[in-house]
Every structure is written in C-alpha cells, then in structure tokens.
Specification:
Blueprint: H1 7-23, H2 30-40, H3 59-71, H4 80-93, H5 96-108, E1 113-116, E2 132-135, E3 144-151, E4 162-168, E5 179-185, E6 192-197, E7 206-217, E8 221-222, H6 228-239, H7 243-265, H8 271-296, H9 310-333, H10 354-362, H11 372-383
Parallel strand pairs: 1-4
Antiparallel strand pairs: 2-3, 3-7, 4-5, 5-8, 6-7
Helix pairs in contact: 1-3, 3-7, 4-5, 4-6, 7-8, 7-9, 8-9, 9-10, 9-11
Protein name: Acyl-CoA dehydrogenase
Family: Belongs to the acyl-CoA dehydrogenase family.
Keywords: FAD, Flavoprotein, Oxidoreductase
Length: about 400
C-alpha cells in the first residue's frame, strides 16, 4: 500500500504544529480547550458530510493532525467521544434531524458526550445488557422512552451533557436482539445519578451511571428501534480508526522511556530482557503499518475494504502489546518499581508514577472495549466462518 505524506500534507502539518504551539500556552480547562479547538476548526476533520464539521481533511491529514496533537502533548480530549464515536455513527446511521441537532454542537466543542455500553453483568459481552427503555405510557411527555438500569466504567459521565445508551426496547428479547441505541440528556436530576468509582489510589477515572426512569425522546433513537446492535458494532469500528495512530505516538513515547530506563539500570545487558525490548519495538512498528493498511483499504474503519475483522485484529494487537510494555516497565526498574512516594505524609491519596500507572492500568487493556476472548470469537465466527461456540448448558 502506498501511504505517503505529500507536500500539501506537510504544509498542513506545519499549520497544525504552529496552531498547537500558540494555543497550548498555559493549561486550559478541559471544556475551554474543546471550545478553543472548535473555534480553530480542528474538530470534525474526518466527517464525511459537509456543513457539520469545521473543515474537511482527507485521511492523510487526519493522521497528520492526530500525530501532531499527540506529539505536542496536548490535553486529553473531553470531546473525543462525541467527535470520534458519536459523530461518525450519526453520519452513518442518523436521521437528517439528528445530524442537524447534534453534530454542530460537537464541532463547536459545546456539548460533551459519554458512552453507556458496559454494565455490571455485561462488560466485554455487550450483548448481555439489561438496561431497558420502554415507551412512556404513564402521562409523561409524548413520544418518549423511560430508561431504567445501570451502566459502569463510564468515562467522563460526570461532565458529559449527553450519553448514547444501548438499551433493551423489546421485552423478553435476548442477546443482540431487541436492542436500541438512544441519545439521552444527562441533566435529569433524580432520574440520572453519576457515582465516581474510587480506586485504591484515591483517584476516580470512571463512573457508575444509574438510570431511574430517565427520559429519551423517541426521535433520538439512532437507526430505528431494535437496530441498536448493528449501530453499536458500527461505532466500535470507528473507535479503532484514525485515533489508533495517535495512540501509537503515545505508545512510542512510553516505549522510549522504558528503553532509557533499561539503559540507565543496566537491565538492557541481559540478553533475555534485550530480546523482549526489541520485540516490543518491532510489534509497535507492525501495529502502525497494520493501522495504515486498514485505513487505506476502506473509507470507513472496519468496513468491507478493510475486512470485517479489522477492528478486532487491531484491538488484539495493541491490547496485549500495551500490557506487556507495562510488565517490561517494572521489570527494567527492578525493586524500585514497587516503591511509593518518598514523602508519604504529603501523598495521600498517593499518585502512581508513570511506570506504575502503565503496569497496573495496562492489565485492563485486554479486557475493556471488548476482551481478547470476545475479539477472537468475532474473528472466528464472522471472518473465518467457524462454528459458533455453544452458549449455556445443553
């Protein structure tokens, strides 16, 4: 595959780099930063329909922006769920009214989104969701659903304006049947409760979200009632698109830190450790070329040109790699990797250092977003055509 950056792409790179250098002075608040990106025209570069995003950019320029953003160490995006997950899904499956209502605020950085997929009993196996959405017949606003249930591991739920929720709209349905994809406003006191999930370090990166009769408009069902599984799977394909290349920029920086530590501690003189580090470097290069090949093979990540199993292959590649990188990070440091802050009295709740964070949180990489087991099942059944796994007891 010929995937190269031309002169116009490099000019775009210089523009992006200069803008980031100028606007990253100080530490902008996350919501303010989203609005600044919107004013600069940097949200919605890859949206395929005109009039909703800020500027149009082909695939190579989307990659350029993602790489420069990562290299500039710009703040984590509060709006990435709306821009990179919801928006492509609406463009592919939403009604004209839904696109007009929801895409412009995302492009302006004015509305933030969270994802209501995983549940306590349905994390990696998303088809097991039990949250329900039923038509309101109890005197509520006409043309609405009432949503009841619980979602978990919901990033950004505490600051999001909206949540896209996968819920069961057909009573008695099972697995991937009878599900719908609903757009739900989060500002519903008494009907939606967000509880931070407190970790051992005292920090909270995720949330639980409880829906107690929360209201969603019937016009905010994407793809039609009962078509939620197809819409949800399409969204997961977008999740593993251009943004994976920016993710790999961060991976390369983490690998570089591990290599420097190995050289400083002398761990790289051990031939077994050295072979392990070289293997991580080679795998990261392989991931990059696989991502470029996949993106170049289809206009839509995970589409027919890229291969139906491409998103699952990508997830398997980076999930296991990142976990192994975390293991290498503590290996090359030795016993020092287990030591906490020097001044415990001033560090409660204590903060993990970069290597400790990589090691501990890397353990989840092969689980969230669809576990390795689920990805292998998808590849086996939907790509290779192997017999389906028996479910439940005979």
């Amino acid at each position: 595959m010929d995937f190269a950056f031309g002169p116009e792409d490099e000019a775009f790179r210089r523009e992006a780099r200069a803008w980031l250098q100028e606007h990253l002075a100080g530490t902008p608040a996350r919501r303010d930063w989203e609005r600044e990106l919107g004013r600069g025209g940097w949200i919605g570069l890859g949206w395929t329909e005109g009039g909703y995003g800020n500027r149009r950019a082909d695939l190579t320029r989307q990659v350029v922006w993602a790489e420069e953003y990562a290299r500039a160490k710009a703040p984590p995006r509060s709006g990435h769920i709306g821009e990179n997950l919801l928006a492509p899904t609406l463009i592919a499956h939403g009604s004209p009214e839904q696109k007009r209502r929801f895409l412009p605020p995302v492009a302006r950085g004015a509305e933030l989104w969270c994802q209501g997929y995983s549940e306590p009993g349905a994390g990696s196996d998303l088809a097991g969701v039990r949250t329900t959405a039923v038509r309101d017949t109890g005197g509520g606003p006409p043309g609405t659903y009432r949503i009841t249930g619980q979602k978990i591991w919901t990033s950004l739920a505490h600051e999001a304006d909206w949540c896209f929720v996968l819920a069961r709209t057909e009573p008695g349905s099972t697995r991937h049947h009878g599900l719908s994809f609903l757009l739900v406003p989060m500002d519903q006191p008494g009907r939606i409760e967000v509880r931070p999930i407190r970790q051992l370090t005292g920090t909270s990166d995720f949330n639980e979200v409880f829906f107690d009769g929360a209201v969603a408009a019937a016009g905010h069902v994407v793809g039609g009632e009962g078509d939620g599984w197809r819409v949800a799977m399409s969204l997961l394909g977008f999740e593993r698109g251009v943004s994976t290349l920016a993710q790999q920029i961060g991976f390369a920086e983490e690998l570089g830190r591990v290599l420097r530590t190995a050289a400083a501690t002398g761990a790289d003189r051990d031939p077994v450790v050295r072979e392990r580090l070289v293997g991580l470097w080679a795998e990261l290069r392989t991931m990059r070329w696989n991502a470029l090949r996949t993106l170049g093979g289809s206009g839509t990540p995970g589409g027919a040109g890229a291969g139906a199993g491409a998103p699952s292959v990508a997830k398997l590649l980076w999930g296991g790699w990142h976990r192994r990188l975390g293991e290498a990070a503590v290996l090359v440091r030795g016993a020092a990797a287990a030591v906490g802050p020097a001044d415990w009295s001033a560090a409660l709740p204590y903060e993990l250092d970069a290597d400790q964070h990589l090691f501990l949180f890397g353990r989840a990489d092969t689980i969230y977003g669809g576990s390795d087991e689920i990805q292998r099942t998808i590849i086996a059944e939907r790509v290779l055509g192997l017999p389906k796994e028996p479910r439940g007891r005979p």
